[in-house]
């Protein structure tokens, strides 16, 4: 007996929801195998990676803190992905948002006005949207690939930030370190829980999830994006402009990434540095797909991805593993998700091998088939006689 993939008549809604759960479970199982191969006790390593980071209030606060930028970026990316607009450069848009928000904070360094923080939020969003507008413009005007353009702009944004903190915005009292001066208190998010790093940026992320739910599932714009992503010809027939969807998808994703970048420099970092993100822009792509491009799913997926970041840090300190362990688990999660998604449109079917003509089992099968055909003929004949008698 062998198995083959058979196309489903309709995509399985059940597998659509079970696929992320299955991917997460397979990632955990693969983690057990990996830790065993590295010579670590699998149960102790599992506890260190998944349980130890959230054992107390500070750990839970850190989980929510790291989930906040992932949540915001993934919601913005989901809007574009539903319309088949593939923004891969959220990391660069996050950096531009951090640069623009940091510029506002440095310009008003002496100010204690309550308007500094809202101005930074708007500047961060504008910076992310401006960076996302470049691939959107090239896609609509020159038909370039937004995947490549947005990805290449990530490196340009990183180099721009590096130049700023090494030259014009470098802290004159920072002992020649490549960083800006520390932001004033008016340019920082207020803390939610004293003694932890959790700040008001988490509330911004929850508000973003709520807005994303309305936009994606309860608005006409979200409906246009879904139609454009599922059936481009039907969208054009209905009068939905594809260029408008491209601009909306890119600008929403860029604005969300810019807000996340502002939250990083106005929260845990408190200044501009050459590295303002550990890769949130790329990790948010996985979060968006694990969350099925839906607001509530993204909320849960961001917590899972945040736990992987914390687990990677704990594994470095407690198990002596390299920092790349975090990326390895993220890659395994994506790999298993893509594999599990196959069963949304396909299912495994058992196929019995064909029997050779000289096989005794083949003769028996043919004989049984002949008996069955003879019985069908006899039944048909009796039915015909009964019908004649009745007539």
What would you say this structure looks like, in words?
By secondary structure, the protein is mainly α. Among the domains are: 82-282, no CATH class; 354-390. 70% of the residues lie in helices and 3% in strands. It has helices at 13-37, 42-51, 57-82, 90-107, 116-142, 146-166, 201-217, 220-230, 232-237, 242-265, 280-290, 295-318, 325-345, 360-390, and strands spanning 2-7, 346-351. The protein has a two-stranded antiparallel sheet with strand order 1-2. The two termini are 51 Å apart. The model has no long low-confidence stretch (mean pLDDT 89).
Spell out the helices and strands N to C. EHHHHHHHHHHHHHEH
Shape descriptor? globular
Share of residues in strands: under 5%
Instruction: Determine the fraction of residues in helical runs and give it as a percent range.
Output: 55-70%
What is the CA-based Rg, rounded? Answer: 28 Å
> Would you identify the regions where 5 or more consecutive residues have pLDDT less than 50?
none
Distance between the termini: 51 Å
In total, how many beta strands?
A: 2
Q: How many DSSP H or I helices?
A: 14
Strand arrangement in the largest pleated sheet: 1-2
Structural class, please?
Answer: mainly alpha
Mean pLDDT: 89
Biggest sheet features: 2 strands, antiparallel
